[in-house]
Amino acid sequence: MSRPDLSIDRVTLSRRNVFASVRLDRLAEYRDDETWVASVLNSPTARFVPLWRNRSLLADTDEGQIAVYLKPAELEQPESVQPPTLLGTDGKRHFFAVSINDSQQQQVLARHPDAQFIDLRLASVNMDAKHAAVLAYAKALHYWQYRHAFCGICGSVNRLESSGHKLVCSNEECGRHTFPRIDPAIIVLVTQGDACLLGHNANWPPRRFSTLAGFVEPGESLEDAVVREVFEESQVRLKSIRYVSSQPWPFPASAMCGFYAEADSRECGSSDEMEEVRWFTAKEIADAVSRDEIRLPPPVSIAYQLIADWYHQQCGENLETLIRQAGSWLSRKGLN
C-alpha cells in the first residue's frame, strides 16, 4: 500500500493553529497487526511520548521548551499502566503514547534531569508547532482512555485494543466497542463595521478579554451553535457567519471550530458567563493593550489567530508585536 506524502504542505488556515500541525502518518491499517506493532516497539525507530498525571515531558533550551521522547531502553515496563498507544510515524520515527506511574516518573526524570512534566496548555506557547501537536495528540488519546476505563453500558472494565484506539468491554455478554470521541465547540470573533466584540469571563484572570465560545449541543449545527452562544453570552444578534479554520483542543477533549460573524448592531449586554463584553476598534485594542487595560489570549489559542487576522486587516499592524511589547502574555492562566 502506498503511503501518504508527508511532505505535502496542505494550504489551509487551520495549519497555522497550534496543535493542528501533526504531520504523522497514523498507520491506521496496522493498529490491529499485533506482530507488526510488537516489532516496531522493539525497533530503533520507536519513541515513547510519556504522560504522567496528564502532563507532558518537556525540557528547557535556549530556543524554548522542547518535547522529550524516550527510547524504549529508557523506560522499563512501558505497559505497566496500559499498553502503548500507536500514534504514527513522521517517516523517521514511530511514536507511541505511554502512560507512566509515579515510580516510572522518577526514573524518567533521573535520566533527564533538565526535563519536567508540565501542563501542555501552558508550555505550548513557546513550543515548536509539530511537537506541540504530537503531544496534544497523545494527551487527547490518554484522556479518552482514562475517562472510559469502564463500560458505559454494564460497568465492566474495558480493555484496550487496536493499539490504543479502541476499548472493548471485558464482559462477553456485553462486548461494547468504544472509540475515541471529541466534543465539538465553536469559537467566534463577532464584528460590526470597524469594531470587534470581546468578552471577559469571571473565571479568567483579571483583564483577560477574548472571543466568544461554547460547546455545540445535540441536534445543533455549527452555525446554529454560533448564533445561540453569541446571543447567550452577549445578547448580540447576527446577520452573517463565515467559517475560518479549526484546531484540536485537548483541554480536555475538544475540537474548536473558528468563525467570523457580523452583528446586526453594537447593542450588547453581559451574561452569567461573560462578566463584561465590549466593542473595540483596532486602535482601541492597541491603546488598551499598551496601557495593560486588557490582556488578549496568547497564540496557543485559535482565539488569538482570529483576533490577529482581523487586527491586521484593519490597521496593517502585527498583533504579536503589540502584545509582546506590552508583556501581556506573562500571565498564562486561563487561556481561552
Can you walk through the features of this model?
The chain has 336 residues and is α+β, with helices and mostly antiparallel strands. The protein is built from eight helices and 15 strands. The strands form three sheets. Strands 1, 2, 3, 4, 5 and 6 form a six-stranded mixed β-sheet that branches. Strands 10, 11, 12, 13, 14 and 15 form a six-stranded mixed β-sheet that branches. It is globular.
Short note summarizing the structure:
The chain is an alpha+beta fold.
Helix content: 25-40%
Please tell me the overall pLDDT.
91
Poorly predicted runs: 6-11, 330-336
The number of distinct β-strands equals 15
How would a textbook summarize the main sheet? Answer: 6 strands, mixed
Distance between the termini: 41 Å
Radius of gyration: 22 Å
Global shape:
globular
**β-strand amount:** 25-35%
What count of helical segments does DSSP give? 8
Structural class: alpha+beta
Order of helices and strands: HEEEEEHEHHEEEEEEHEEEHHH
